[in-house]
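Handoff note, outgoing to incoming analyst
You'll be picking up this chain. Sequence as last confirmed:
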Amino acid sequence: MKKWTAVLLAGVMALSMTACGSNSDSTTGADTTAAPATEAATTAADTTAAPVDTTAAADTTAAEADLSNVKTVSEGKLIVGTEAGFAPYEYLSGDQVVGVDMDIAKAIADKLGLELEIQNMDFDGALAAVQQGKVDLVAAGVSVDPDRAKVMDFSDNYVDSTEVVVVNAASPALSEPTADALKDKTVGVQQGNIADLWVSNADNASPKEVVRYTKFAQAAEDLKNSKIDCIVMDELPAKELVESSNGALQILEGDPLFVDQYAIAVQKGNADLQTAINVVIKELKDTGKLDEIIASHSTAK
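Most recent structure output, in case you need it:
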């Protein structure tokens, strides 16, 4: 997001889900200190605008697609940028980055006959890296919004996500997950993800302060210690965060704060790779494999 948490999927998926996606290719970890709100970060586009059409120019089935023209940053490799602090989409198992997005990326690499290389970085850094052609794609729970669509291209949506509000269970600073309830509150978000954009937009909410983190683990510690009032984030990662808090945190019950979609980002104009990704996403959905992938990584009960 790095990471800009039941599961509800787009298309054929019946699991319900909710949101928020890394840095230079040499980065293997992120600074977990909270970044102060800046004017540049708070002038975000209205994420309630009309949906962005992420569909490739033409519907292409696996049988019809010619994937031989796909070019990658490094010959023989497919390099994916991600932020491994956004379970179940991407997280660390030992020293390996795994998760829903990594399984999708592996399926794309296999389809193209390439070796998958995963680069773990900050969410903002990953989005910059794909724009600059340093990685081939970003798979990190990336939300599609009009401003991002101006500077990078997106695959078809592969999952719907639901944004929720996490509070301190012992002393919740708010009682309902609404925009009005966020007024005059100190809200934690992952820097650069869709929750950051949404909460920072005055048309959506009026928090007292937006505190930005590169890692949700640090946001969780600050929430436990009442340094912030709540965290706004995707439902699935939120469930994982709450599960690991041993009762210290809880998700506020109620309707989602807002609903979002995730897609895979590629460099602007890279239609060949975009088509290949869409082919794989369609196959994973049609065969039910995407449901299996998500279920295999969703451990919070």
